[in-house]
Amino acid sequence: MSSIWPNGKRVAVCLSWDVDGESAQYVRFPDRARNQLSELHQRLYGPQVGIWKVLNLLKEYEVPGTFYIPSYTAKLHPDMVEAILNDEHTVGLHGHLHHSLDQLTREEEQAVLVKSQEIFKELTGSVPRIFRSPSWELNRWSPELLVQHGVVSDSSLMDDEVPYALETPRGPLIEIPIQWLLDDAEHWNHHRANRDKAISDPDAVFRLWSTEFDGYYATGGCFVLTLHPFISGRWAYMAVLERLIKYIRSFPGVWWTTLDEVTGWSVDRLAQNQLPIRQSPAPEPLDF
Ligand SMILES: [Zn+2]
For burial by CB atoms within 10 Å, which of 144, 183, 184, 195 has the most? Predict the structure, then answer.
C-alpha cells in the first residue's frame, strides 16, 4: 500500500487530550454546580494533577501531544497552558464553558467562539487554528462559522479514518475524524450520576485501542486517541496509555504528530488536489 503520510510513514498517530476541568459542569448541571462541590472537585483533578502526569509521560517517551482546552479552563490555569506550550505541544480551541453546541443558537455559538479565541490570544499571544467541539456536537452552521473565524480544522466527526476537507459556503474546513471507541470517557468516566455503569477493565480497553491501532496501521489511517486528564490521569489508566505508547513504538513507520501538524499536512494535500472533499448530508431526505 502506498503511503499518504510524510516521509513514507505508514500511519499517523495523534494523542490528544480535552482538558475540560470543571467547565462543563456549569452548563450541564448548573444547579449542582451552584450547590454541590464533589463533581467540580473531581474534574479539577485534570488541570491540577492529571495534566502534569500526562506531560511527564510524553516527555519520557518523546511523544507530542495535542490539548484542546475550554478557554474558561485555560484562563483559570495559565500555568498549565504555559507548561504545555513550553514542552512544544499544541493547544486547540474547545469552547469556553464546554457548551455542547446543540444547546446554542448561531449567534451564541459565534459569541462563544470569538470569546475563546480572545482569551487564548490574551494568554498565549496567538489564536489556535485547530478546534474540537465540546461533546463532539456540531450544528449544521458550525463548519461555516469556524471557517469564517479563521479556524482551519475541526476534530469532531466520525465518518472516516483519514482527514478530509468538509465543504462550507465560506470554503473548506479540514476535518480530522475521531470516534467514541477511542475516547477514555466512554470507558472510565465515573461519577455519582452514572454509578450503575461498570468501570471498564483497563486490559480490555488496551485490547480495544491496540486492535483499532492495528487496523489504522494496516490501512494507513490517522489514529486519534481522545483522553481527559481528569479521567485517565489516574494511575491505572495512565498505565494503559504507557502500554499503548510502547506497543505503537514497536511498529516501524509511525508518524507521531499533533492535530495541528496534520492540519498543515491536510491543507498542503488539499492544495495538491490530494485530499478527499466531502459534503454534509442533506438537511432533508433526498427526493428519489
Ligand atoms: Zn471536552
Answer: 184
| 98 vs 100: CA distance, rounded Å | 6
In the chain, the number of structural domains is 1
Q: Along the chain (288 residues), what's the average pLDDT of each consecutive run of 10 residues?
A: 91 98 90 90 96 98 98 97 98 97 97 98 98 97 98 98 98 98 94 84 97 98 98 97 98 98 98 97 95
Q: Supply the range of the domain harboring residue 187.
A: 6-278
Query: From CA 115, how far away is CA 159, in angstroms rounded?
Result: 29
* In-domain check, residue 40: yes
User: Would residue 211 count as lying in a domain?
Assistant: yes
The answer to the question of residue 288 being in a domain is: no
Q: How far is the CA of 250 from the centre of ligand 1 (A)?
A: 30
- The helix/strand/coil state of 157 is coil
**Size of the chain in residues:** 288
In a domain, 55, yes or no: yes
How many CB atoms sit inside 10 A of residue 176's CB?
Answer: 25
Of 162, 95, 105, 169, whose CA–CA distance to 132 is shortest? 95
Question: Which residues are close to ligand 1, an ion, with C-beta < 5 A?
Answer: 18, 20, 134
Q: How far away, in angstroms, is 94 Cα from ligand 1 center? A: 7
Q: Looking at the chain, list the stretches that DSSP marks H as alpha helix, in order from N- to C-terminal side.
A: 23-28, 30-35, 38-45, 51-61, 71-76, 78-86, 106-124, 142-148, 184-188, 202-219, 229-232, 235-249, 259-271
